[in-house]
Amino acid sequence: MMKDLGENLVEEKKITKLTFALFTGLFLIIITAIYSYFIVLQKSFIWEGDGFSQHYLIFKDYSSLIKTYFSNPSAGLQFWDWTNGMGADVLSAYGYYVVGDPFVYLGLLFPASMTEFAYHVLVFLRVYAIGIAFLFYCRRMQLASSGALVGTLMYTFAFYVVLNVTRHPFFLMPMLFFPLLCIGIEKILHNESNTLFIVVIFLSACSNFYFFYMLSVLIFIYAVIRYFNLYSTKNNKLLLAYVWKAVYSYLIGLLLSSILFVPIVGGFLQSSREPGNFASGLLVYPVKYYWSLLLNLFISERYLWTVFGYSSFALLMVPMLWMQRKKFSFIPATLGLFAVMLTLPAFGSIMNGFAGPYNRWTFAISLFVSLGAAILYNSRFSLKKKEVLAMGCMILLYGGVLFVVIQVIDFRTAFIAPLIFASLMWLVLFLANKQQNKKALTKRSKGFYSAVLLLLIMANLGYSAMDYYYSWGQNTIELSVDYGTIDDEYLMTFDQLEQQLPQDKDTSRIGVTSKDNHIKNQFIILEEMGLNSYLSVSNGFISNFARQLGTGQFQLIQPLRNGFDDRQIANNFLGVRYILTEKENEVYLPYGYEVVENLSDKSSDFIVAETKNYFPFASANSTYLTYESFEKMNPIEKEQFLSYGVVIDSKEVETTDLTLFDQSLNVKSVGYQLISENKSKADIEEDEITIKEDNGKVELLLDDATVLQQAEVYVYLEGVDFTPSVSDPLTGTPTAFNARIELGERKKTIRQSDVLSFSSYFKRENMLFNMGFQDENSKKETISLQFSKGGNYKLEDLTVFVVPLDKDYSDRVMEKRDNQLNIETFTNQMISGSITMTEPSILATTIPFTQGWKAEVNGEEVETILVNEGFVGLPLGAGTSKVTFTYRPPFLILGAFLSLAGIILLALNHVFWNKH
């Protein structure tokens, strides 16, 4: 039997088309009130952080890719993109953002010139759809129209939605899917059709695997609690019947999505992401987290992605739900469970895929809060005296808690605004119920009180959003890109100097310097091959390559960035022929890259540098080193070896006819004394440096400064372990710091992120600084080492390495050119060419390794191998080899077969299992 949440309410109407129309009108009013400010300031919804580098850029590129396919379907879909980092699988790279989002495909209705406008329209459509989905849920739960309308407004304009309008628009999708999944479960639990549940599982699995995982856990929690709310008897047979129906419905939906879900998840499992320690090693959160749980309930702020920001009307809901908990038991039961989950990092980690304990799942709490608020609004004229009194006490209690909390934080007016709104709402309820108890309210009086309460809730929601965006509040609107400028910003990344580069047939890449931190995914829009990428899912093999070579710029979602720390051989090896950067960064150009005056526009702030020593895209090598031997080298030696031969797994390749590398590499350590010029700021004790003030500095005084001449210089910190001198009792022990090395004009910084930065945190035990090539006139005797935060820095070792100028290096590069694959076809789907070798060898490419690349040699399929820690390689025999590489996303065919199985099961479900 359906438990009607709206029963016993007088003169309340059911949800009809008029309710949906009223919501649409109120939605437009609130949207206009909040976001007209963006129009006034000519600001977009595109956050200058990830919005600029990821969300809009990927939406723009993917829309273009799909439109290209529709204009010429015979060419097939593009599954690989050479402009995305070193090259990336489109499904894996974009699956997290756009591939399965149904709203993205509505963007195809707009011409390319209106892409930015389309992006904004689709954000509004997502928000509107969130409200419509919740309103359908309210109708399913048989809530009366007026309360459902209020609950829907609260759900639609909860801070999670307001935040992600400009921060992460695709984070809005779970807010849409969750109420629809709940409707699906309700249908199953009431012996109705399971079709909706199957369809929404399919859509949510396609849309984003990360949030699909959370939704799966959340809908399981909802189903269990709701079952025992509806059927309290211990009927195991009935329980098993519902479990079976829910499980097979879930599996059908998941199977249907497999054509996207399987290859996307497969790419994620081979990505550079890493789980790290469970819950990041935390048993409890910092103290600040716990008081922020209370402070942020009704304001537009968040901490560790725990997002609330509800209308103050929810505060009045709490005592009513508690006092009527038998009637509405599943709402307080669910909220109680969620409250427990919020207290411990372990639950946050589980909900975040066993990674860092971010509470991004808190979007789900909005459904139950809004549902409870809808019930309260429907009960606004039938509250008991003790319920109204309890609501007043709740306001006083929250006010007391708030008073205590704001003693330790900087006060903002927004902190007391919820109390003001809650008090006004309570006053309306108090007066209405007091009058109702004396004499039944007239229809006109009820309309007046209802309207005032609705307006207060709308004003509360609007105020919270404005506090987040507007200049008198947090002023986050200033973090948005100016509307109408973003496309030009992409095109002017390098003042369009990339368009002046020679358009020859040579397959090479464009690089940047370590000072070009703003260059992330722009090469995609510029349609140029580079190295940089900034995506939530990046190739794990490229990540491993970057770590093996110890690049200090490495980040989990940006494995190759900032010009590979300006290292000569690494850039050459990756095929970087040109480097584009601002003139002021010329000192950071790797050795061998010279400014090309005729390509560097004198009116521009940018320069073009070129090298003759860039490696070919693919070349054959007969000299090899095993991974075991390679692992024993330091990062500089590893980089040096790449100019000699190829790294392979001797178990995968027959090495009889290959030559094992046995030369010594010209990498030398330099003697020095570690000194502190001011011991009041920095002190040194054996393997430990104590920094007594922030930005404290020590010096490496070289024994012989002449060893730096005509050599590349590196400083290598091994076994770094930081213990801060101070610990904030509210935010916990900080683990973030910057290490900075200075040598002459060059300054290099490596950052250790904080353990609470769960998305980017990993412990940097080693730090390698490339300080560049020093010419014969170099007389520098000291190298400075600075740490940004006070504390103790333990170092297992601190080494200064020099790599003297290698006169034979260019000859080795030329040898690789002589043995290169002569490329005849180079597209996103296929590479083909020929090569002639007098002896067996290994063809080493700079194609990022993935199982999706298949190879044929002289018409016969050959298994690819992993070479050089991150790239596709092939064993070649002596003679002429015609080589063809083709790409197809891994697991795509498997996913297609699984989706076909899902279609068959869906048909069987409809014919046999879904009869009513």
UniProtKB/TrEMBL annotation:
Keywords assigned by UniProt, alphabetized: Membrane, Transmembrane, Transmembrane helix
Protein's UniProt name: Uncharacterized membrane protein YfhO
Source organism superkingdom: Bacteria
Bilayer-spanning residue ranges: 20-40, 117-136, 143-163, 169-189, 196-228, 248-269, 281-299, 305-323, 335-355, 361-377, 389-409, 415-432, 448-470, 891-913
Organism: Carnobacterium viridans
